[in-house]
Design a protein that fits this description.
48% of the residues lie in helices and 20% in strands. The chain is α/β, with parallel strands linked by helices. It has 2 domains: 86 residues, Arc Repressor Mutant, subunit A, CATH 1.10.10; 245 residues, 3-Layer(aba) Sandwich (Rossmann fold). The strands form 2 sheets. The protein has a 7-stranded mixed β-sheet, sandwiched between helices. The structure holds S-adenosylmethionine (SAM).
């Protein structure tokens, strides 16, 4: 049996209970972002009724609401499962391993573009002592080491032992690089001992960003410079007919997934409050046009499922939303901010 998109939308809206014709179209608009044309809705209703997939509730006279028949419910479930299988081939259901995730991300053009801006802004020179706060698997250590040359030094710090091990393995050939396992809230580094500090997408995860910035201030010399890059997750947008589910996906990410989801817009203020002079804030909008690339960053399927479980939208809306993302030309965008912050020089 063939069900068109219009018929599928009708079946989905009736899955939660009987509805009148006009209410069906309102529910379709909520689910997909658009109403069906008059002819298209009545055609879909007539065909579904002819196939015995929906039926009127007789007892209510002329204004008869429609409901799914048992056969209709079966067809709906079968079709959703089959589109879900196609979508699942596109999107990852499992949580990726965190080292592979960071390494894949670091290799993507969109991450490299903000890292290039960060590196220019840090203005590293030969002989500088630099620190990478939350160095992860160490993907930035080589670039920092090249800029400070053999007369300088780079210290990578991360509190995750697996990240530290990977960062050390990556930098065995770099004599000026050292990696230590430590908490960025409490750095094992002497006061005023570093010229430059770099932190890329770490403050979004930490318990107390104020304290981390106070630590960065403590370890930097007067005249030292800190460069921060952080996303602002509320800026995440999708091009999807179902704009409400897109907004709810972003809301869930902000409310429940990322600890400090608004840190992008807050970093300049927090740096100023920690005693830095903020000399520049550079917005970097990452545009994602490949669904699979976006999925590697956003875990679309996983997080849509979590959002549905948390009541941000229904499981069916989630599935239709994912199907739409997998089927249509993809567009999503999110903005990060690179903040350049300096300490006053010696007086
Ligand atoms: C999104 S990753 C970014 C890694 C790296 N900066 C990069 O650009 O690839 C965040 C890193 O911050 C580390 N991290 C989070 N909280 C930390 C803390 N309190 N102390 C030290 N590292 C921390 C995590 O272990 C993880 O490696």
């Amino acid at each position: 049996m063939q069900t068109t998109d219009a018929q599928m939308l009708v079946l989905c809206t009736l899955a939660r209970g009987p509805l009148h014709g006009y209410a069906i179209n309102t529910a379709i608009q909520e689910l997909s972002g658009e109403r069906l044309g008059r002819g298209s809705l009545s055609g879909a209703l007539a065909r579904l009724e002819a196939k015995n997939l929906i039926e009127p509730l007789d007892e209510l006279g002329r204004q008869r609401p429609l409901r799914l028949t048992a056969a209709g419910r079966e067809v709906l479930e079968r079709e959703l499962q089959s589109t879900a299988r196609i979508t699942q081939r596109m999107f990852e259901a499992a949580v990726p391993d965190r080292i592979g995730y960071q390494e894949r991300l670091a290799a993507m053009d969109l991450t490299r573009s903000h890292k290039r801006i960060m590196l220019d802004a840090l203005a590293l020179g030969p002989g500088h002592c630099a620190i990478d706060l939350g160095c992860g698997p160490g993907t930035d250590l080589a670039a920092l080491a090249a800029a400070v040359t053999s007369s300088g030094s780079v210290l990578g710090v991360d509190n995750d032992p697996a990240m530290v091990e990977r960062a050390r393995a990556r930098s065995t050939d770099l004599a000026s690089v050292e990696v230590r396992q430590a908490d960025v809230h409490d750095l094992p580094v002497a006061d005023a001992s570093r010229d430059r500090a770099w932190t890329d997408r770490v403050l979004q995860h930490v318990q107390d960003p104020h304290r981390v910035l106070a630590e960065a201030r403590r370890v930097l010399r007067p005249g030292g410079r800190l460069v921060i890059a952080e996303p602002d997750w509320e800026s995440l947008v999708f091009d999807h007919a179902d704009a409400e589910t897109s907004r709810a996906y972003t809301r869930h990410l902000v409310d429940r997934v990322v600890r400090n989801a608004l840190i992008g817009r807050q970093s300049a203020r927090l740096a100023a409050q920690a005693g830095f002079e903020v000399s520049a804030v550079v917005p970097v909008t990452h545009v994602l046009r490949q669904a699979q690339e976006a999925d590697q960053i956003l875990g679309l399927q996983r997080n849509a499922q979590r959002a549905a479980e948390a009541g941000y939208f229904s499981a069916q809306a989630a599935q239709l939303w994912l199907d739409g993302l997998a089927r249509e030309p993809f567009f999503a965008a999110v903005t990060s901010y690179v903040v350049v912050a300096e300490l006053p020089g010696w007086r």
